[in-house]
């Protein structure tokens, strides 16, 4: 049983870590503000969530588990809202998203 | 499991290697960020980097097992000071003025002072050395006798609030003075706005900020609850008046950012905040005076109750409460004044254009 939990937890942690790295790559590589916050928003929520679930599987006692669950809930509330507020503020201050122009196809 | 880990010398070596790696990564991040802050002209980015600097320092303190300091650094350095600086640049403008002259003299002075300081550290004991004066002077007494003399598990709190109570009193007075100074410089007249006017302004923007307002409304009670937990749990775990005050203020500031300054002023009246600023310092000082009158030294809590340990508990509880009050209300006061200035200016500009 222990080995199953350890393996599942490792999978969650690795997946979460991978998503965080893709978020970092996304910030550097994506062309405009909105795609970049998409990269951070999605991967922060999901990546951090998966890492927290991976940690939850390894907790020594219930108190730590409760703390991790609270952190997860907070992340799930705060991250998307922060991303939303950022995007809205950008849109309101006149930053228009980079749209594919009609004569430029592909890429 | 833990005892097994400590018995095995090989795992200890590996742990140290990982810790060293983490230290190197964190410290090089700190250096990079410091250079980036110096080089940048965009103040918004500088403030964000300063916040990251605070958060990274906090992580560094955690790896050094100084969780109380890390907690303070995370809440003050990464949290509230970033917020206050953002409020400031929303008034002053986003970009740094370009300097035409090249201050070579300043560079030379900084270089010489820096090298002298580094030269000075050569005489200091090695990091973590058991022979260092700090390990031999009063620290062993605090560590060995804290439990029997003060009776609370968190040694940091017993050193901060009891053994070094006078120093902490000084810190609280410094914060109080800062609050009073900001208030004296930036004092704004709180205009009595009609409630209907505030409601109108809020309702007109309600749709636009709906999601943020909804989530903020849901989270603020928990933030306040967490602040109270940090305040009263400081005897048993990391935390105490400073951190709790900052977290409490952060909740109020979040409220006033999301719902508007005038709404926040209607909920938390500024005169009461000003009163609490002084009341915290007064409470701290009074505990000292009471212990003086009861026949002890200033801030000697043993005499506060028949049982010395109970007296210590009572004294620490009261002075932490004083610290929390002052810190929270000073932060709220500073934010209210900064942001009130901005509101007034916007109002004036609005009047000029129309």
Secondary structure: elements and pairs:
The complex is a heterodimer of chains A (107) and B (354).
Chain A: H1 2-29, H2 33-56, H3 62-92
Helix pairs in contact in A: 1-2, 2-3
Chain B: H1 2-7, H2 9-39, H3 43-63, H4 67-92, H5 104-121, H6 133-136, H7 139-149, H8 155-163, H9 165-186, H10 195-204, H11 210-232, H12 241-259, H13 261-267, H14 270-293, H15 308-353
Helix pairs in contact in B: 2-3, 3-4, 4-12, 4-15, 7-8, 8-9, 8-15, 9-14, 9-15, 11-12, 12-13, 12-15, 14-15
What is the chain-wise order of helices and strands of chain A? HHH
Counting structural domains of chain A, the number is: 1
SS class of chain A: mainly alpha
Total helical segments of chain A = 3
Mean pLDDT of chain B, as a whole number? 85
Helix content, binned percent of chain A:
over 70%
Low-confidence stretches of chain B: 1-8
Helix content of chain B: over 70%
Major sheet of chain A: none
Number of helical regions of chain B: 15
The largest contact between protein chains, plus residue counts on each side, is:
A-B, 7 and 6 residues
First-last Cα distance of chain A = 49 Å
């Amino acid at each position: 049983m222990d080995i199953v939990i350890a393996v599942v937890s490792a999978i969650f942690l690795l997946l979460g870590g991978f998503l965080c790295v893709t978020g970092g790559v996304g910030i550097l590589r994506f062309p405009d503000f909105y795609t970049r916050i998409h990269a951070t928003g999605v991967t922060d929520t999901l990546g951090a969530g998966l890492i927290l679930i991976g940690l939850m599987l390894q907790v020594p006692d219930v108190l730590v588990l409760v703390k991790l669950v609270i952190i997860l809930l907070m992340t799930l509330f705060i991250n998307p809202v922060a991303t939303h507020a950022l995007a809205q503020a950008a849109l309101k201050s006149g930053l228009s998203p980079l749209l594919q122009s009609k004569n430029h196809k592909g890429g | 499991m833990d005892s097994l880990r400590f018995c095995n010398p090989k795992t200890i070596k590996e742990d140290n290697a990982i810790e060293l790696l983490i230290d190197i990564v964190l410290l090089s991040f700190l250096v990079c960020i410091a250079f980036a802050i110096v080089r940048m002209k965009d103040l918004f980015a500088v403030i964000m980097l300063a916040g990251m600097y605070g958060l990274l320092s906090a992580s560094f303190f955690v790896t050094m097992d100084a969780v109380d300091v890390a907690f303070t650094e995370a809440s003050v350095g990464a949290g509230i000071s970033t917020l206050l600086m953002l409020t400031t640049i929303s008034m002053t403008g986003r970009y740094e003025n370009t300097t035409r002259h090249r201050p070579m003299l300043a560079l030379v002075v900084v270089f010489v002072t820096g090298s002298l300081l580094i030269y000075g550290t050569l005489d200091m004991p090695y990091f973590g050395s058991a022979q260092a004066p700090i390990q031999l002077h009063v620290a062993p007494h605090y560590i060995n006798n804290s439990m029997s003399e003060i009776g609370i598990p968190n040694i940091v709190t017993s050193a901060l609030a009891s053994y070094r109570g006078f120093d902490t009193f000084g810190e609280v007075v410094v914060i109080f003075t800062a609050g009073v100074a900001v208030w004296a410089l930036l004092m704004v007249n709180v205009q009595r706005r009609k409630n209907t006017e505030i409601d109108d302004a809020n309702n007109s923007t309600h749709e636009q900020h709906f999601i943020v307002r909804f989530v903020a409304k849901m989270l603020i009670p928990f933030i306040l609850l967490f602040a109270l937990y940090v305040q009263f749990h400081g005897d048993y775990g990391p935390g105490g008046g400073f951190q709790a005050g900052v977290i409490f203020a952060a909740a109020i500031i979040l409220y006033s950012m999301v719902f508007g300054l005038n709404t926040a002023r209607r909920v938390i009246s500024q005169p009461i905040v000003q009163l609490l600023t002084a009341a915290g310092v007064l409470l701290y000082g009074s505990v000292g005076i009471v212990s003086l009158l009861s026949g002890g030294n200033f801030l000697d809590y043993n005499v506060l109750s028949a049982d010395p340990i109970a007296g210590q508990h009572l004294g620490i509880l009261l002075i932490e409460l004083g610290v929390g009050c002052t810190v929270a209300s000073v932060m709220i006061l500073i934010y209210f004044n900064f942001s009130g200035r901005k509101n007034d200016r916007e109002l004036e500009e609005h009047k000029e254009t129309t």
